[in-house]
Design brief:
The chain is globular, with a radius of gyration of 23 Å. The protein has an 8-stranded mixed sheet. Strands 9-10-11-12-13 form a 5-stranded mixed sheet. The chain has helices at about 5-20, 130-140, 160-170, 180-195, 200-205, 205-235, 240-255, 260-270, 295-300, 350-355, 375, 380-400, and strands spanning about 20-25, 40-45, 65-70, 75-85, 90-95, 110-120, 120-125, 150, 280, 290-295, 310-315, 335-340, 360. The chain is α+β, with helices and mostly antiparallel strands. The longest helix has 30 residues, at about 205-235. It folds into 3 domains: about 5-150, Beta Barrel (At1g16640 B3 domain); about 160-260, no CATH class; about 275-400, Restriction Endonuclease, CATH 3.40.91.80. The chain is built from 12 helices and 13 strands.
Length: about 400
């Protein structure tokens, strides 16, 4: 990451840490105008309305408020938050960024927008590289599925049953902070006990399950932080150095929080679906792709048909690093390469590059609309990927029987 990008990211982290309210969202193709839609401005969810309006808009009439946003590089926009409530519309957008505003262009689809408010003053940031995005999310304690909403700076609000289950998990820990496998496994257990998300429901809607599990694990971690750190914070610190040492330790734990949780959740789904797969198989050049279907042994068996193998890479975000997967499986160089991601939106140019390299994106179903319309039908849901692999397994069974 360049010094300029790091300064931008650090400024965004500081603004969010020091503000009254903040939110972030991945810019969709609709936000940047890449869908060809006639809508203008950035769509914001209703839960972000308190940042801009004292009261929500009322159906049947429009409502607006004007304010200045300060952006990096001494850029200022006199922008407008507007509620469209007339006719069939019922949505909030931020508009009026000016003709010279550099960020609402197709190339910025999938970038992370951050707006922070303090004392009725607004700061805005756009993070475009994966390093910036991932480091920011980890620094403020978010996962990729916790965007498009207000950033909580205190204890995460939980339903009573959910809170009880999470606190029971914490009470039974014999370590301060468990590893990623423990967190992911117990996130699934809590989702089942609180939401009834058993194996049958996972199989019926794997796209929803992966989002619920990721969301639950985030809530667990933030609750664990509050439990573990609150007593220490209340004790106070003897000096500034002691405070910064504590803060750095907490921040580093956030950076390493996600680990391989997303892979663990996907493996649980594949197991529930009864699919054969193996993680971290060593391939040519000591590469370790995330998943090989049906197994590493099949991959290394030169008599096993290539067309019956499947390779799935997993990346939380993939604006830049998707190219890393291209050489992970030499045997499958002429086969489609599948990439599961929680990324919301990617520019048309990058999607064209992926298509040229025979990379097929796999994303949760509800995220597909954040991509440019010409490519939405080419992006797979997790359910579609599972059915594809199951079809290959049936071919294997028919071939050997």
């Amino acid at each position: 990451m360049s010094d300029k990008l790091k300064r931008n990211m650090d400024s965004a982290i500081l603004a969010v840490t020091d503000c009254d309210m903040a939110f972030c969202k991945f810019l969709s193709a609709n936000d940047t105008g890449e869908t060809g839609s006639h809508q203008s401005g950035i769509l914001i969810p209703k839960n972000v309305v308190p940042m801009f309006f004292d009261e929500p808009g009322e159906k049947g009439s429009n409502k607006e408020v004007w304010f200045d946003i300060n952006w990096p590089g001494n850029l200022k926009t006199h922008s407008r938050a507007v509620y469209y409530g007339q006719k069939t519309r019922n949505e909030y957008r931020i508009t009026q960024f000016g003709r010279g505003f550099p960020y609402l262009k197709p190339a910025y689809t999938g970038s992370l927008l951050i707006i922070a408010k303090k004392d009725n003053c607004y700061q805005g940031f756009i993070l475009s590289s994966e390093d910036e995005i991932n480091d920011f999310l980890e620094a403020v304690g978010l996962s990729a599925v916790q965007t498009n909403q207000l950033i909580s700076k205190s204890e995460i609000p939980l339903e009573a049953k959910e809170k009880s289950a999470i606190l029971a998990f914490i009470d039974n820990l014999d370590v301060d902070f468990p590893d990623a496998v423990c967190m992911a496994t117990n996130a699934r257990h809590i989702s089942e006990s609180v939401l009834g998300l058993n194996a049958t429901k996972v199989i019926s809607n794997p796209d929803r399950a992966i989002l619920i599990w990721t969301d639950t694990e985030f809530k667990m971690f933030r609750t664990l932080e509050n439990v573990r750190y609150m007593n220490r914070i209340n004790q106070g610190f003897d000096n500034v150095d002691e405070f910064f040492q504590f803060a750095k330790s907490a921040q580093n734990r956030r950076f390493s929080r996600a680990g391989k949780s997303l892979e663990h959740h996907l493996k649980a789904i594949f197991d529930d679906e009864g699919l054969q797969c193996e993680e971290q198989v060593v391939t040519e050049g000591n590469k370790k792709p995330d998943f090989i279907f049906p197994s590493g042994a099949a991959y290394h068996d030169q008599n096993f048909p290539v067309e019956k193998l499947t390779f799935l890479a997993v990346k939380t975000t993939c604006k830049d690093r998707w190219r890393q997967i291209l050489n992970e499986c030499s045997r499958l160089k002429d086969e489609p390469k599948y990439l599961f991601t929680l990324q919301q939106g990617i520019s048309m140019n990058q999607l064209k590059e992926m298509e040229e390299e025979n990379v097929i994106l796999v994303v949760p179903k509800e995220y597909i609309t954040s991509y440019p319309k010409p490519f939405q039908d080419k992006i797979w849901t997790l359910e579609k990927f599972i059915e594809h692999v199951r079809g290959k397994e049936e071919l294997i069974v028919n071939h050997t029987s």
